[in-house]
# Entry
Amino acid sequence: MNKIDIKSMTIEELEELLISFKQPKFRAKQIFDWLHVKKVLIFAEMSNLPKSLIEVLDESCTITNLSIKRKLVSQIDETTKYLFELPDSEFVESVVMKYKHGNSICISTQVGCKMGCAFCASTKAGFVRNLTPSEILEQIYAAGKDIGERISNVVLMGIGEPLDNYDNVIRFLNLLSNENGHNLSLRHVSLSTCGVVDKIYELARLKLGLTLSISLHAPNDQIRSQTMPINNRFNMDELLKACKEYANTTSRRISFEYALIRGVNDSEACANELASKLKGMLCHVNLIPVNEIKETDFKKTYPKNVVNFQQWLVKKGINTTIRRTLGADISAACGQLRRDNL
Ligand code: SAH
# Structure
């Protein structure tokens, strides 16, 4: 019999479970506290529960635990990359970044990725499976324990496409922000998608308060379809329409990610075309020189051109920032995460 993944359960579901064990409902909050606040990894440590209940829990449930298989710390900026081993011996990576305003973690949502973006390392070894809500959460808990500090910002920008694992990601967000648990406001969470349009509409309706980032990386369908297969499923018009709807429904500014690739999407004409498409939308553009990976020939745009591109956009009235690259010496930057153990 498969054991129940108890860390993926809401308090209401725990209450149901306890009723099925003929135990009082109030134990649900106690167990939730042990799992999501004290973050214990064995039932025996839940010292305010009766022994009989601990035995039942041990028999029927499991507490998801990720072990740190490898940890690399950047010599440049203290960014830390973890390779976590999952209960079935698959692997994912997560990255902790230390900022003045607190610790931020970039987490994975799938083992591998199906999306096939040409410039991204995370997709190169294919897709294995979705992460469970507890496996997504546990990256935050395990890294927090390792650094001995609270993690206060979360970005879903690691391996995988969060909106391709929609139900587990929504459940994860509910657990993460539960006031009886880790209690992280979703204002401190960013979710990044390559553009799964139908799910953007669903997400908008939930009004969760998180920041939506869109991996845009091109000013038109011709360039976008060359590098991002998702564009053949949902084109740019459809994507930008969904983004407008998201911004209107949630009053949250959309963040467009744009990795500058030399000779592909980094010309002044590209900037002007991008600006004309985004004009009037509640949004900003985040530029990043593409990180080079071994499987492709894509090159970073020239450093001076990053600033030029920013100015071209700003001149057209588009709010634009340049993203700092962190953890480059340990392959922890955007698009460099992998699920292998090499
Ligand atoms: N699948 C989601 C979540 C991954 S986020 C998404 O596509 O948004 C990872 C971010 O890094 C995305 O914005 C992605 O487009 C970007 N990225 C991927 N490869 C990159 C590279 N080589 N250089 C810079 N950014 C890259």
Observations:
- The chain is about 35% helix and 20% strand.
- Residues 133-147 form the longest helix (15 residues).
- The two ends are 34 Å apart (CA to CA).
- The first strand starts at residue 4 and ends at 5.
